[in-house]
Design brief:
Blueprint: H1 11-25, E1 43-50, E2 78-81, H2 83-86, E3 95-100, E4 111-118, E5 129-133, H3 134-138, H4 146-150, E6 155-161, E7 172-175, E8 183-189, E9 199-204, E10 211-212, E11 214-217, E12 220-224, E13 232-237, E14 244-251, E15 260-262
Parallel strand pairs: 1-5, 2-4
Antiparallel strand pairs: 1-6, 2-5, 3-4, 3-6, 7-8, 7-15, 8-12, 9-10, 9-13, 11-12, 13-14
């Protein structure tokens, strides 16, 4: 069962999507329920695996992380989830512990996965489903039974939310391809703690005003305004708990599309 991969869209599609979201923002107001990201309760779900039996997972995915999913710390920890957890992309970056239940073959150890993709056909009836890399799926087995566990097909599991941890990493911002001084698109990487993003704002160097960005798809946000003048500070508010953090002047004056800029901040000390 393969997770749905994000189609290759051109700059025009991204720009049009951002414009549409700006127009809709004034018409639609959605309420968000805040929850604790650390949940000690386990919930029922199902799980499958995809790719090579010992593989690290998909290349890219609907969250837009691209080749980042192929390197540590995401490597072999990526997962596609059903729409109820994907949340139209706002669930990207969230972390979960997943554990199988058959004591004859399952270890008591849970695997930790990071949402990097959507699997819309896995549970279209609203149920919770995880489509894991072959390596992550196999880690739920007792020693020596990795292959037997993968042969089970659709597997009953339990899961719970857990804080994301990226030792040695700080929150990082990627400027997406096609960005200009009138259309700026950002993607968040290595967001620890909640992992998800509920809102994003930027502030120009000469201003005290935080400008709201719009969620396009996956983990990508944009703003249509200009000309925008860097350096830019970025403020994140998490979807799950509403925690806020700001990175001052994280994107320099001479920023470039496709460049990545690490901050000096993170949610977990």
């Amino acid at each position: 069962m393969n997770p749905t991969m994000l189609p290759h869209h051109g700059f025009g599609w991204f720009f049009s999507s951002c414009i549409l979201l700006v127009l809709l923002k004034g018409l639609v107001v959605s309420a968000q329920v805040q929850h604790r990201v650390t949940d000690l309760h386990w919930y029922p779900a199902t799980a499958t695996w995809y790719g090579n039996p010992e593989g690290d997972g998909s290349d890219g995915g609907a969250c837009g992380y691209g080749s980042l999913v192929d390197v540590r710390p995401l490597r072999a920890r990526v997962g596609a989830v059903s729409p109820i957890l994907f949340k139209n992309g706002e669930g990207c970056g969230a972390c979960f512990k997943v554990r199988c239940l058959d004591k004859s073959i399952c270890s008591r150890r849970a695997v930790t996965i990071i949402v990097t993709d959507e699997c819309p056909g896995c549970a279209s009836d609203g149920r919770t489903h995880f489509d894991l890399s072959g390596a992550a799926f196999g880690r739920m087995a007792v020693a020596g039974e990795n292959g037997q566990l993968r042969n089970r097909g659709v597997l009953p599991v339990i899961y719970r939310r857990t804080p994301c941890k990226y030792p040695g990493k700080s929150i990082t911002f990627r400027v997406n391809e096609g960005s200009t001084e009138f259309w700026l698109s950002l993607l968040v990487e290595f967001e620890d703690g909640d992992g998800d993003v509920g809102s994003m704002h930027i502030r120009e160097a000469s201003s005290t005003q935080w400008l709201p960005m719009n969620h396009i798809w996956g983990a990508t946000w944009c703003i249509v305004k200009g000309p925008l003048k860097g350096p830019f500070s970025v403020k994140l508010t998490t979807l799950s708990t509403g925690r806020t953090l700001s990175a001052r002047d994280v994107i320099p004056r001479n920023w470039s599309p496709k460049a990545t800029y690490p901050s000096r901040v993170k949610f977990l000390s």
